[in-house]
């Protein structure tokens, strides 16, 4: 049996990722799919990005998907967009992790270009025999190879929506449930608002068996103090 481990929204919680990797890597080598939103809100965005760029230990396979927060950062820094929406939704914490002072300045040049280009290059979904891994969700009316990027990065499912896509089980984050994960017939939502709650839930999937998770790794650490009002965008 080979396994896939799905790691949802980290949002700068480098401390949780360190613990998660240590526990996952106690198992025989397999695949880890990171579901996006590595940055913003928490204090360790830079450390997470550097870790993911460095890649896995020998024998392991890592797949890093793009989240809507990576998209916001890329479009702000290299796309020239007004920085206010990104900064107001956790981007300020990301820049501070790269050395920007707490003085209200905006210094995107502190972020290495290689980091921004890495985020820009990330895939939007990963498909294996039984499942589709994506940051936010998929449009059930479109083939997987014709999905719109905005849907993959920003979609919100009705809470009771339990369908997958053409026989595939959907594994995603983006839509937080503090007491999650949300496990339904056709989809699994792993986002438990880890950046604020300190509770990260990692789904473990048997690559040979269709459907939802085989088990979970649950990490519960102290929630950090908030620096500002809670952002509006997940």
Automatic annotation (TrEMBL):
Gene3D superfamilies: 3.60.21.10
Coiled coil: none
InterPro entries noted in UniProt: Ap4A_hydrolase, Calcineurin-like_PHP, Metallo-depent_PP-like
Pfam families: Metallophos
Entry GO terms, CC: cytoplasm
Sequence ranges assigned to domain Calcineurin-like phosphoesterase in this UniProt record: 5-190
Biological process according to GO: RNA decapping
GO molecular function, one term: bis(5'-nucleosyl)-tetraphosphatase (symmetrical) activity
Alphabetized SUPFAM superfamilies for the sequence: Metallo-dependent phosphatases (SSF56300)
Protein name: Serine/threonine protein phosphatase
Lineage: Bacteria, Pseudomonadati, Pseudomonadota, Alphaproteobacteria, Hyphomicrobiales
